[in-house]
Amino acid sequence: MAEEKAIFAGGCFWCMVKPFDSQPGIKKVVSGYTGGHTVNPTYQEVSSGLTGHTEAVEITYDPDVIGYDQLVETYWQQTDPTDAFGQFADRGDSYRPVIFYQNEDQREIAEASKEKLQNSGRFKEPIVTKIEPAQTFYPAEDYHQDYYRTNSAHYNAYSEGSGRAGFIRQNWKK
User: Fold this and answer.
1) What is the rounded (10 degree) CA torsion for 111, 114, 116, 117?
2) Half-sphere exposure for 51 (CA within 13 Å, toward CB)
3) Alpha carbons 88 and 7: distance in angstroms, whole number
4) Nearest to residue 65, comparing CAs of 4, 140, 14?
5) What phi, psi does 141 have (nearest 5°)?
6) Cβ of 27: how many Cβ atoms within 10 Å?
7) What is the CATH number of domain 4-169?
8) How far apart are CA 112 and CA 1, in angstroms?
9) Contact present, 9 and 34 (Cβ < 8 Å)
10) 81 - beta bridge partners?
11) Which family does it belong to (predicted)?
């Protein structure tokens, strides 16, 4: 059975797990940190903005069941790709939207998908999500894992209260 990884940052990592976790071919979705300079950062360190890391999810998937292109499409539909300075209520570099590619094929798929989204006219503003090479991914603390399951009431309230759920309904559920 084949196995590949994808890393996406799209604001609070709690909100980035469920959309991927429920798809066929997904083996595991881990909340964590990547893109910075601190080794094994903690949530408090990343939240300080001093580590250079962003909250992200690392997805382990079976490419024979689900393609990277499908994962990228799912990613776009969880984010505001026109906001480079965070996502929804979460502001700052640790919440910036980034597609972290593992190899040249992933980079090409992500770039083509970004261009297609820009040319679609769905958004009036430019698509500013970064596409960067993957760096070391550090899993977050256990209490952040599968948050939508372990703390569903708080997760649902946060998704609505942050503005993410409303944005998705308005911009993606058409």
Assistant:
1) 180
2) 21
3) 20
4) 4
5) -55, 155
6) 13
7) 3.30.1060.10
8) 28
9) yes
10) none
11) Belongs to the MsrA Met sulfoxide reductase family.
Stretch 18-37: mean pLDDT: 96
Looking at 12, 17, 56, 59, which residue is catalytic? Answer: 12
Give the tokens for residue 121.
Answer: 């006219």
- To the query of whether residue 12 is one of the catalytic residues in this protein, the response is yes
Q: SS3 string of the chain?
A: CCCEEEEEECCCCHHHHHHHHCCCCEEEEEEEEECCCCCCCCHHHHHCCCCCCEEEEEEEECCCCCCHHHHHHHHHCCCCCCCCCEECCEECHHHCCEEEECCHHHHHHHHHHHHHHHHHCCCCCCCCCEEEECCCCEECCHHHCCHHHHCHHHHHHHHHHCCHHHHHHHHHCC
The answer to whether residues 106 and 69 touch, using CB atoms and an 8 Å cutoff, is no
- Quote the pLDDT of residue 2: 87
